[in-house]
Amino acid sequence: MKNAVSVSVTLFLTAVFLVFLIKPALFNPPSVNPDHEFDTARAFQRLERILGDEQPHPVDTDSQDVLLERLSAEIEALGFAPLIRDEFICDAAYGRVNCARIRNILFWVGEPGPDAILLASHHDSVPASPGAVDDGIGLAVSLEVAAILAEAPAERPVLVLMTDAEEMGLLGARAFVARDPLADLVSSVINIDARGVSGQAVMFQTSQPNGHAVLSLASTARHPIATSLSANVYDMLPNDTDATAFLDLDVDLANFAVIDGDYYYHTPRDNLANLDRRSLFHMGASAIGAVRGFDRVTGEAEGQWAYTDIVGLFILKLPEKVAIGMIILGGVLCASGFVRAGGGAPIRTALLPVSALVLATACAFLPTSLIDLIRSDEAFAFANPWALRGFQLAVSLFATLACFKALLRTSDPLRALAAAWTWIAILAAMLSLFMPGGSILFAPSLALAGLGSLCVWFRASVIAKVLFVLAGSVLLILLLPLAHFAELALKIDAAAPIVIIPIMLVLVLLPFLIPRPVGGLKTYSLPLAVLFSLTIGFGAASFLVPAYSAEAPQRLNILHAQEAGEEPQWSFRTAEQLPAEFSEIAPFRRGQLTRLGGERYLAPAPPFEEGVIGARVEEDRIEGDGRTVRFVIQADRADQVIVRPGNGLPDASEVEVNGFQLRLSENWDISCFGRACRQLDINLSLPASGDELDFDVLIFQYGLGPESQTLLEARPEHSIASQLGDIRLSTRRLTTSPET
Ligand SMILES: [Zn+2]
After folding, report:
1. pLDDT at residue 514, rounded to an integer
2. Which of 106, 373, 415, 557 has the most C-beta neighbours closer than 10 Å?
3. What's the confidence (pLDDT) of residue 233?
């Protein structure tokens, strides 16, 4: 008997371990349906033509000109008339001013009019990436959806917007919201973007209240993926997409993204070869579904829902307050079921779930801390997250089982189950206080567990057990995706708290397998030994696996710096590993650059062609209680210019950049992106003071020149540029005092 219990406990815990170990493999987009109205092949071919030779195409660059021509040609080929808004704008956000010449592209599908649905994406990429997914997927989907709607029109007008400079502070979207007359016609927005390069299309953010957005997806989309918890979590993160700007329009908004495949996000490998057709299809099917959905829900009264998809089959939604009520009621019923169940050992049984949840979650932090002590590489689990994931899981399951061994003494498993569900209800209620959208993930299973507890009152223990098994299964179905997306959002190094999900599942299912108080060593020795072996095995693997690989390369941008008055240097951040290949080319050592913060690897480098650079103060004058400082910067090869005030600058009250005026209240930097910044005229209006003022001028050229070819060729396969990519930096310093 004890042997049978011991074996079944071992098998069960091993199964939990395996499911959570391999969970990323369980969340794939649906396969392409060739009969669906969204023609994935046609959408992909269109994107191939638009991206051409797959050059990065950041805002206001030569390569962007080419891309915009090809994009306009595709829009015209579909029979639409593209409008291009070409303007120089600035926007203040997070204590910095972003400026660029932007070109938003818009076109109407069908007749223009009010109450329009806006289908939005962005056409710029980061300088390091061809942007086939970010946001090529948005362009491809928008064009194919427009083609579908041209054949089978929506009832509401549909406006397609492809913004510029999303990657440089959402400038295009902010310009549309603040300055485009068409913005007033929009009342619903579907935004399509990428926070990774693969995986499912997730509706991860909505406007509040969310009734219309949820209904739009729930009513028509195929394979909908969404949860209200992600919308709550996203609101707390500093990340932004164009949707952040669109929310200022007070519209119904559904924000879609692919969020898997972090390895290649914002790198040269976000390219067509790595674009998963399934992700494209899933995004397309979700977007056309959302358009049709918004078409239906217009005018209806709107509520605030807690919602989640059920394995992509449909959207389950409840009014937020109802979901929270179900959690509380379920918790009360479970607590009463605990009292009614009997079976002895009430205190130990009540303490078991909370001890396991606290102890096992705490233990899950140990692996990362331990490896951090020994390994020098910062992102040691990047290429092989399975090792650390397995280590965290094995340690926490071991701790959970140890709690069962120490505390499980009741002779009635229903008592242990009721105790576990009561604690889960308490946790779920606490979560719902801060993130009410999370209530939907617990409400259905707690309703079932509450019913099971009612059966305990009527001594219908078989029905009670069936209901508790159902409750546990529903909890698994709803929480497994949460575990997956939470690990994507947190990154594996910070993902230890996620083990709380498998621990909950063990608490609500394991008591079924241990029918009587069997505290003896024999029952627990086999499963504990297996979990211990897994801990050792995956622990050893975590120490040994390489941090990076060719498939999961480290991000390493080479900076070729030529600071005013200094020798030129090659440089990169010390968070990255110094590749041995680089050491053979130049004697890299640790140090700092004069005008950029942070410790870096530095090595002497040959000079590069800066082109003509001029930076001079044209005017510095006090008049009344104001001081005007005007300076002009010329840099005929610049791709980006940053002007950063040095010491002693009061908060500027107003700034004018190339004629664009902006009020300021905080300390600021000005970042100007693109060719329009090669001639900068900056006019500052400051409170009067006679102080001497300093400004650092940082001039960036994207990419490296021929003088860095040896270094570029030596870049190992497991290192890759990202975001701004490799860069040439020149600096100047401006100092000024007011004329007297
Ligand atoms: Zn993007």
Report:
1. 84
2. 415
3. 85
Structure tokens at 298: 């217009």
What CATH number belongs to 553-740? Answer: 2.60.40
- If you average pLDDT over every residue of the chain, what do you get? 92
- Distances in Å between the Cα of 533 and the Cα atoms of 157, 507, 524, 536 are 62, 22, 14, 5
Taking the centre of ligand 1 as the mean of its atom positions, its distance from the CA of residue 199, in whole angstroms, is 15
What is the arithmetic mean of pLDDT over 463-473? 96
How close is the Cα of 418 to the center of ligand 1, in Å? 46
State the distance from the centre of ligand 1 to the C-alpha of 702, rounded, in angstroms. Answer: 19
- CB-CB contact of 584 with 569 (8 Å): no
Are 158 and 117 in contact, with CB atoms under 8 Å apart? Answer: yes
pLDDT tens figures, 209-224: 888 888 888 777 778 9
Please report the pLDDT score of residue 122 as a whole number. 98
Cα 171 to averaged position of ligand 1 atoms, centre (Å): 13
Ligand 1 centre and the CA of 195: distance in Å?
A: 7
Q: How far is the CA of 527 from the centre of ligand 1 (A)?
A: 46
Give the mean pLDDT of 348-362: 96
How many CB atoms within 10 Å of residue 407?
20
User: What tokens appear for 584 in the block?
Assistant: 């053979």
Q: Where exactly are the structural domains of the chain? A: 2-25+320-544, 31-303, 553-740
- Assign domain 31-303 one CATH number from 3.40.630.10, 3.40.50.300, 3.40.640.10, 3.40.50.720: 3.40.630.10
State the pLDDT at residue 428. Answer: 98
Lowest mean pLDDT among 40-54, 153-167, 340-354: 340-354
CA of 125 to the centre of ligand 1 (A): 7
Residue 528 phi, psi dihedral angles, 5° rounding: -65, -40
Q: Is 221 helix (H, G, I), strand (E, B) or coil?
A: coil
> Ligand 1 center to residue 192 CA distance, Å?
8
